[in-house]
Amino acid sequence: xxxxxxxxxxxxxxxxxxxxxxxxxxxxxxxxxxxxxxxxxxxxxxxxxxxxxxxxxxxxxxxxxxxxxxxxxxxxxxxxxxxxxxxxxxxxxxxxxxxxxxxxxxxxxxxxxxxxxxxxxxxxxxxxxxxxxxxxxxxxxxxxxxxxxxxxxxxxxxxxxxxxxxxxxxxxxxxxxxxxxxxx
Amino acid sequence: xxxxxxxxxxxxxxxxxxxxxxxxxxxxxxxxxxxxxxxxxxxxxxxxxxxxxxxxxxxxxxxxxxxxxxxxxxxxxxxxxxxxxxxxxxxxxxxxxxxxxxxxxxxxxxxxxxxxxxxxxxxxxxxxxxxxxxxxxxxxxxxxxxxxxxxxxxxxxxxxxxxxxxxxxxxxxxxxxxxxxxxxxxxxxx
Lengths: 184, 190
Known about the structure:
The complex is a heterodimer. Chain A is mostly helical.
C-alpha cells in the first residue's frame, strides 16, 4: 500500500510538471520491466529497447492511469503489450542467436549441466502458449498475486489460475522428459 | 483464518518472492513442513525462477531514466506543431464548410431580397420592426422610428424621407385604400 502511495505521488508530481519524478519511477521499475521483456524476447538488445519503449509509452499515456489500480500492474501491462507487439512482428531468429552466445561460456561440468537444464526450461517456457507463458512469467518470476496478474493480463483470476497451472505442468513435463530431477 | 492446501499452492510464487505479508508467510512456511506436494512445487518454482536474466550493465541502468525523460520531452516538442494542426484539422475543415455554406446561402437570398421589395406588398412590413399591434395613435411614433431605421433607409434610398412622413400621417382607412390600390396596380403590372 505504501509502495502504491509512493508511485501515485510520483505520478502526481510529474503531472504537476516535475520531470524528475519520471526518472524516479524509471529507477524503481526498470529492472523488473527489463526482466519481464527479456523473458518474453530472450534477447538482451530487444529487452533494452523494449524497456525504454515501455517507459516512454507509460509516461506519454500517464494521464490515462487511473489511480485506483497500482502503477506497478499498469506498467507491467504496458510492458507485456509492448513485448507482444514486438514478438508479433519479429519471430525467434534473434533469440536463437542470443541463446547460442549465452551457451558458449565455458565453465565447470556442474555449471554446464545447470545451464543446460536452464536452457531446457527456458525453451519450454518459450514454447508455452502465449497466455500460459505470461501467467508463469508474472506469477512465478515476478511474484504477482492472482489478482494482480489478472489485472495485468486483462482477464479473470480463474483464467490466470488455469493458465498458470497448465504452464507450470507443461514445464514440469519438459524437465521430466529431459531427465532432470527436481530436488526437494 | 487458516488457509487450505489449494490456497497455499496459489500463494507459493508470492511466498518465494517474499511479497506475502508476515502472517500469511508464516502460514505457508508451516504448511510446507507437512506437505510434500507443496515442497515439490516450491523446489520446481525455484528451479525455473533461477534461470538467469543477463544484466545489460550499469551504463544502461544509469542512463535509462534520463533517456526516457529526454525522449518523452523531445516527442512532446515534435508532436506539438504537427499534432496540434492534425488534431484541429477536422474542426478547421468543419468551420470552413459551415462558412462556405453560409456564404452560398446568404448571397442568393440577398439578391432575392432586393428584387422582391416588401414595401409595395405591405408597407407596414417594410421595416424590420413589427407594427402588427400598432393603433392609429402610434402612427406618428412609427413614422419617427421609420426615419431612423438604418436597415430600412439604405435599401429604400429612392424614397424621399418626406414621403414617409406624408404616408405615416394617413388614417387607417386611407392606408387600407392605398394598400388596395397598390395591390391592384401590382397585379395589373402597373
